[in-house]
Structures are given as C-alpha cells and as structure tokens.
Amino acid sequence: MTAPDAADLKRDQILAAASRVIAERGYHATNIADIARELGAGHGTFYRYFKNKHDIAVQAVDRAMRRIAEALADEPPEVATSLDEYRAQVTRIAHRLFDLVIAEPVVARLFFFEAAAINRERAERFHAALDDLGSFTAAYIRNGQRRGFLRAEVDPEVIGLALNGVILAGAARMLRVSDPAAERDRWVDSVLTLMFHGLAS
Amino acid sequence: MTAPDAADLKRDQILAAASRVIAERGYHATNIADIARELGAGHGTFYRYFKNKHDIAVQAVDRAMRRIAEALADEPPEVATSLDEYRAQVTRIAHRLFDLVIAEPVVARLFFFEAAAINRERAERFHAALDDLGSFTAAYIRNGQRRGFLRAEVDPEVIGLALNGVILAGAARMLRVSDPAAERDRWVDSVLTLMFHGLAS
Amino acid sequence: MTAPDAADLKRDQILAAASRVIAERGYHATNIADIARELGAGHGTFYRYFKNKHDIAVQAVDRAMRRIAEALADEPPEVATSLDEYRAQVTRIAHRLFDLVIAEPVVARLFFFEAAAINRERAERFHAALDDLGSFTAAYIRNGQRRGFLRAEVDPEVIGLALNGVILAGAARMLRVSDPAAERDRWVDSVLTLMFHGLAS
Amino acid sequence: MTAPDAADLKRDQILAAASRVIAERGYHATNIADIARELGAGHGTFYRYFKNKHDIAVQAVDRAMRRIAEALADEPPEVATSLDEYRAQVTRIAHRLFDLVIAEPVVARLFFFEAAAINRERAERFHAALDDLGSFTAAYIRNGQRRGFLRAEVDPEVIGLALNGVILAGAARMLRVSDPAAERDRWVDSVLTLMFHGLAS
DNA sequence: AATGAATGAGGATTCATTCAT
DNA sequence: GATGAATGAATCCTCATTCAT
User: Is B35 domain-assigned?
Assistant: First the structure.
C-alpha cells in the first residue's frame, strides 16, 4: 500500500479542475486556458501530467463512468428471491444513482453530456457502455423471471435498455431542478409504481 | 401560395448535404470542406444561403426536431376515452416514431446526437424540447387519470419524462441494430406490457 | 505537355520565397511568419500548397540538390580519351558549378548549408548524396586509369571524395567573396595544376 | 597554478555529457532534458554552470575547435627545408587529425557538423575558422615556394583552402566507415600522391 | 449566381528557463 | 549545492469566412 505522493495529488487536482470546466462549458468550448485559469496554474503544467487536451477529457470522462458504474454495480443481479427484495434492491440502486448525481453534478454531467461529445470513437464507447448497462439490468429481469416473480413474457434485453432510458431521464432531471432531493423521491415513487404495476388502473 | 423557386431548392439541397455529413461525422468533426465535397459545390455557395457553419447546423437540427415532433404530435392527448383506445394511440405513436427513425436515420441522428452537441445554448434548447415532450406525454397521462383508466397515484410529469427516456432509448437502439423492423416490434410489445401492466407477475 | 497553371506558379513563388528566407536565416531560425512576410501573403496560404514547414524546407533543399546535380551530371565519365580532353571536361564542370553558385547563391546555400541542417534524416541523405557524387567523380578517375592517362596507383574512391572536398571548399568560397568571378578563375587555375601535376616543383 | 576543484570537474562532466548528446542528436534536436538524462542530474544543475542551452553548445563546439586546432597547429609552417621534410610533416599532420577523429568522434562531429548549426553567428565564426586554417596551410605552401621545392605558379591561398576541403572530406569519411584505421591509410597514400605529383601519369 | 484561393484569428503544444525547497 | 516542478513565451497549424473573378 503506497501513500499517494505529491504528483498524484497534483494530477487529481488538475483532473478535478478540468472536469469542472468541461462539465460546465462542454469539451469543444473548453480550451486549455480555461482549465489553467480554473486551477490557477500555467498551461505547461497540464502537459506535465496529461498528454493533451483529448487525454485530459478522456480521463475525466472515464473516471465519471467508473463512478456511475460503481453506484450501480454494487448489487448482484441474482440475490433477490422475491418481488419485495427486488423492489428494495431497485430502490437502493435508484437512490444511490440519484444521490450521486445530486452530490456530484460534475460527474453526472461528464457522464451524461460529455462522454459522447469528445469524438466518434468515444461516442461509440459510451453507447457500448449503455448497452452493457442494459445487459446488466436485463440480468435482474431474468433473475426475477427465473424465480417467478417477474412476468415471463417481456424481453429482458428490451426492458433492460428501456429502464436505462428511464434512469437517464431521471438523472438528467436531477441536474436541472432546484430541489433535487424532492424530485428524487417523486421519481422513485412514480417509477416504481410504473415498473411493477403499470399504469392501468 | 408561392411556388418554390430555384433558390429554395438549392437551399434544401445544401441543408440535406450538411445534414448527412453532420449526422455521419458529428458537428465538431464536420468542416465546410466536407459539406462542399458532399454537395459538389464551392465553399462560397453555403455563404449565399446560410450565415455560417453554426447557422447550417442549427437549421439542420431544427428541421430534424420538427420532423420528430410531427411524428409525435399528430395525436391529441384528450381523445382516448378508454384504456384500449389509449393503448392503440400509444402503439400508433411508437410505430410512427420508430418508422421515422428507421426510414430517416439522418434525421434521428441529428435529433438524438447532434441537437445537444453544437453548443451550450443549443443543448439547453434541446433539453427544453425534451421537457416540452414530457409535458405533452404527461397530458395523455392526465387524460387517462381524469377518465379513470390510468392510476391516479402516479405523477404525470414524472411519468411523462420517464416515458420520454424509454422512447429515446428505443430510438437510439433502432439506429444501432441491423434489423430495426424486428427490433421495433420486440420493443413495442415489451414496452406496452411494462407500461400498462408492470413487470410483477 | 501541359501548360503550368496558376497553382503551379503560386507554388513556385512560395518555394522561391521560402528558399530565400531559409538560405538567409537558416532552417531553424526561419518561421512561417518570416516566409509569409517575404512573399507578402498570409500564413494559411503556405498550408494550401505545402504540408508544413518541414515539407517546404525539404522541397526547397531537394530542388537545390537537383540543380547542383544537373550542373555536374551533364558530362558522361567515359567520354574523355586523353588527358587534354579530361582537363577540358573538368574545366567545364568547374565553371558550370561555380557559375551556378555565383548566379544563384540561394540554391548554393540551401545545398551546402541547409541540406544537412533540417534534421538527422536529411543530414544522412545529404551525406549519401555526397557519397554518390564521390562515386561519380571516381568513375572519371577510373576512365582515365583504364585509358592510361591517369596514375594507376591512386584509389579512385578516395580521389573522388577528396575532389568533392575541393569543390565544396571552392563553392563555399564563391559564396563569401566580393568578386566571385575573379575568385573562380584563380581557383580553376591553381586547382587544375594541383590536380594534374601536383605541388612538387 | 590552482588545483582543479570539484566545481571544475562537475563543469567538465556536464560539458562532456552535453557534447555527447549534441554530437549524437544535433543541436536543435537536443533539449535540456536529454542532457539531464545523459548526465543523471536535474535541469537546474546546468544553469549553475552554464548560462543557457546556447552557452553549453558554444562551449562544447569551441572546445572541439580547440582540439582540432591543436592537432593541426603543432607543426610550424617554416621548418620544412625540403620536399621530403614537408611530405613527412604533412603525413604527421594528417595522421594526427585522422587519429583524433577516430579516437574522439564526438569532438569531430561537433566540429564538422554542429559548429555551423547553432545559428548564423556561429556559422560565420566556423567559416572564419576554416579561412584561418586555410591561411595557415597557405603558409606551408609559401614556405615551400620560397625554398623552391613547391611550384611557384599556384596561388597559396587557393591551395590552402582546397587542401582544407580535402581534409574535411577525409575526416567526414572517417566518421562514416566501419574500419577507419584502414580508411585513414588509404586516404593518406592517395592524397599524398595527388598533392605532390598530381593525377597525370 | 457560383467559385475556391486567400486569409488570419484562434488554439494546441513545446521546451528553455526559473526558483522554492 | 542540487533539484525538478512550474511556467508562459513562442510557434506551428487549422479552418471558418471573405471576396475578387
């Protein structure tokens, strides 16, 4: 276990400053001078720690993707044995994600708005990550179908991606409202009802 | 009613060429030379019909947004008087949207991937459009609640945005699969079940 | 036979301007702004005709190398059948080279001083060209040895490179004196005596 | 007479390291980091001993020029009283120069390839040094002419510079061949024949 | 009206040099 | 004395835009 040294700290500071600026202005509108100003350092300092502007952005975005994935991936898809357990699991995941979005809007903006904005190659990587996330969600659905507490007739892959879409929409919403905590609770309530019981009365 | 003259036709040709290139490469990776090559005309020609690169992109994206809105807005939110009618309405809307995505991927890419990529101001306009679309969907939910065939306890605004998210996820999917017509039918089936009856068995 | 078009002319003008500046200031001290100023055009104009600064310099130097090679290569090594014919041949070659140096000092400076200055790869190419030139001169020596009018005991390759050195020294001298025509005649006289009869009295 | 202290030693080490790197990569392709790596010291250390990069290079080159001059200047131009003595003198000088080139290729590369590469001012100084060397060689010729063992009709200044050129060509050759000792002997033999007896049979 | 050669503002990047530790 | 992290001036290069033909 090595102690983080001064260089690692500096690296993290630059990454944090770049993340803030890119999240605020967008990748293409951000220039090196903006990042330098945000950190209070000279341009050259970045180039000691990162290869170029693309490299900084990719690392900021990758870090954001890891943070989002950690919030989602903590719950194994096979553990829920009943509808109530699964419902509790979904509730926990939703809260964790929304709380992360609320607590770290920079991370959320990098993930939702900048991950696909850097270039085509990164956009494809972002969509592949969403596909992976959909497959991961599909594993929960399949678990419930196997155990008999979720409808067998729905296509798990479709539902996985559809729930992705719901989650993205909710997270994007949290970034845009003035009282995100209240919005979060409204979302979880209504979406859980939609998800488990449908809209038909 | 004035007949479209030659200038309008040329304008449309340029807009179509720019739309194809921007949809393929992305706004920031597209340069004027790319569009000129695609159209087989000189750079200067654009500047006769459009103010600048930003202007072309905005008009291409706005046109795509109008096309998408037309596909969705044909169905007034108040007409459905029963669950079956609403279900049929939703099915029609979904088919119209997905068919548009399949038939005109350029329009879909401009809407889903480029509308928010141009700059911050356009990203905010895109999100406002999604909010409008959510409110529009919420009107359907409210109609169903008023008429008693949809659950009263869900928040229509939340459900409106959540269904937005499902639609976006589905449309993005249509752009990425090799047999989009089959994918469309899988989506409509599973998503209607989710939407009206929920996943609980 | 195609007529040179406007683009070729412009290209040649830029190459000529860059050649003058590089010959005067040296490759590394020359920047794009200097060349732009010399031509009276914007920076961007260069980049329409040349890939980058390295590309301009390489083409300027290669053109200079071709000009020098043309001045030397006009005389086939095998034609001289007697000492007098060879002496006349050497005299012609020397005059052609020195006259070129005097008439076009830019070409000479590019060849003698900048060909090896761009980078290591170009320096090696320059030295390879000098080796080729030495081998070419050696062919004259071998012709004279075969025909019996030049001493058999000298190594033609060594003499070829040694005469290279004499020529380079003379050409460099022409670039540095105020009356190069007089200097040229002094050189040809003394060097021919050295070359054919030696210094011993 | 002061003993060389630790500071002088360090200075010499830095100069030696810089000489090696500049000889290998060339002045303009060498950066301070390369020299620091070669020495195993920090950048700042140079700036304790040398004013800047230009200063290091100039001192490295000047030292090389002194080393070359020492190899040549040991023989006073007036001592030879006969052709045989002069021939022996020339042979000694040539061996000393070529042996230095072979033993210390770094010194030779700095002199032949980098002395003129630093900037215009240094290039002119290099050419002035070659002119001085030519005048020095001319003094030998004049001595031989005065004493009657060398031809009176050649121009000593021209011959001085021409022999310079031969020497430079030979030294450059020594740097490029795999068996420089054999090459040296071939050169001395053929060039002495050329120099004293000429090529005519 | 159409063209595309010319332009130069703008931005990314390098690297010699400094100076706090 | 030694260090090397920090700096920003300097420079290359791109590309949206203009305008003479």
Answer: no
Report if CB C10 to strand E is under 7 Å: yes
**Residue C150 forms beta bridges with which residues?**
D200
Print the domain residue range for A175.
Answer: 61-197
Residue with tokens 């090559």: B37
Domain CATH number, residue A188: 1.10.357.10
From the list B152, B161, B189, the residue facing A169 with the nearest CB is B161
The per-residue pLDDT for range D95-123, each reduced to its tens digit, is 999 999 999 999 999 999 999 999 999 99
Kindly state whether residue C47 falls inside one of the protein's structural domains: no
Rounded CA-CA distance A166/D158 in Å is 90
Identify whether the C-beta of residue C123 lies closer than 8 Å to the C-beta of residue D26: yes
pLDDT digits (tens, 9 = 90+) for C35-68: 999 999 999 999 999 999 999 999 999 999 999 9
D89, part of any domain: yes
Amino acid at A180: P
Helices then strands, each counted (H, E), chain C: 9, 0
CB A123 within 8 A of CB B26: yes
Distance, CA of D195 to CA of A73 (rounded, Å) = 86
Q: How far apart are the first and last CA of chain D?
A: 58
The number of domains in chain A is 1
Contact residues on chain B for A119, CB-CB shorter than 8 A:
26, 29
Chain A positions touching B158 (Cβ under 8 A) are 186-187, 190-191
With respect to residue D19, please indicate whether it lies within any of the assigned structural domains: no
CB A49 within 8 A of CB A14: yes
Least confident of B69-78, D21-30, D53-62, D183-192: B69-78
Q: Do A169 and B173 touch (CB under 8 A)?
A: no
- Residue tagged 């609980």 (tokens): B200
- Per-residue model confidence as pLDDT tens digits over A108-158: 999 999 999 999 999 999 999 999 999 999 999 999 999 999 999 999 999
3-state secondary structure B104-137: CHHHHHHHHHHCCCCCHHHHHHHHHHHHHHHHHH
